[in-house]
UniProtKB/TrEMBL annotation:
Gene Ontology MF term list: ATP binding; ATP hydrolysis activity
Keyword Cell membrane attached: no
Organism: Kineothrix alysoides
Cross-referenced PROSITE patterns: ABC_TRANSPORTER_2 (PS50893)
InterPro entries reported for this sequence: AAA+_ATPase, ABC_transporter-like_ATP-bd, ABC_transporter_ATP-bind, P-loop_NTPase
Signal peptide: none
Keyword list, A-Z: ATP-binding, Nucleotide-binding, Transport
PANTHER family per UniProt: ALIPHATIC SULFONATES IMPORT ATP-BINDING PROTEIN SSUB 2, TAURINE IMPORT ATP-BINDING PROTEIN-RELATED
Name of protein: NitT/TauT family transport system ATP-binding protein
């Protein structure tokens, strides 16, 4: 089922971050949201994930859906290693060797058993991405998941993400048009409460 976002508005105090925002997100495809900092893109994702409430408007088509999420604050358990963090949310049938294989595919070989508090920001983000991709989800919400990666590694991780999420609904927030074009699908541009699609 497509997701219909209709006239969403959100304020924090006097600051308006979303105003009458309306789009349709196609089921089983990638939709990228591009915007500068402060344009409301992270707020939009939090509303979609059920972590924030809109002041006005509605979202339909997500009822009963399982959501996989990667936010800029990765929400990993600091004292656990990457494998243990992933096992907290993945299907019980996923084995440790399978998790290790997925971590290697995003360049985390050799770091799987370190506490995540010792990992760099980019390594933590990749751990969170693998965790989301191995969780049981219908809709994948990604907030700047490729930030901080060099061009070669970024392309590898984006290719991995596309392969693992094939056929699922993916909502990606990025400020990098190259990322949005690489991931394919619809691109929505947000700026000062003006919205347009490619």
């Amino acid at each position: 089922m497509d997701i219909d976002i209709i006239n969403l508005s959100k304020k924090y105090g006097e600051k308006e971050v979303l105003r009458n925002f309306s789009i349709r997100i196609s089921e089983g495809a990638v939709t990228s949201v591009m915007a500068p900092s402060g344009a409301g893109k992270t707020t939009l994702l939090k509303i979609l994930a059920g972590l924030e409430k809109a002041d006005e408007g509605s979202v339909t088509g997500m009822e009963g859906s399982r959501i996989g999420m990667v936010f800029q604050e990765d929400r990993l358990c600091e004292n656990l290693n990457a494998i243990a963090n992933i096992r907290l949310v993945c299907d019980s049938r996923v084995t440790v060797p399978q998790i290790e294989k997925e971590l290697r595919r995003v360049g985390l070989e050799g770091s799987e058993r370190q506490p995540v508090r010792e990992l760099s920001g980019g390594m933590r983000r990749r751990t969170a991405l693998v965790r989301a991709l191995l969780s049981p989800y219908d809709i994948l919400i990604l907030d700047e998941p490729f930030k901080g990666l060099d061009e070669h590694k970024k392309n590898e991780v984006m290719s991995y993400t596309l392969k693992k999420s094939m056929g699922k609904t993916v909502i990606l927030v990025t400020h990098d048009e190259k990322e949005a074009k690489f991931m394919g699908g619809k691109i929505i541009y947000m700026n000062d409460n003006n919205y347009r699609t490619n």
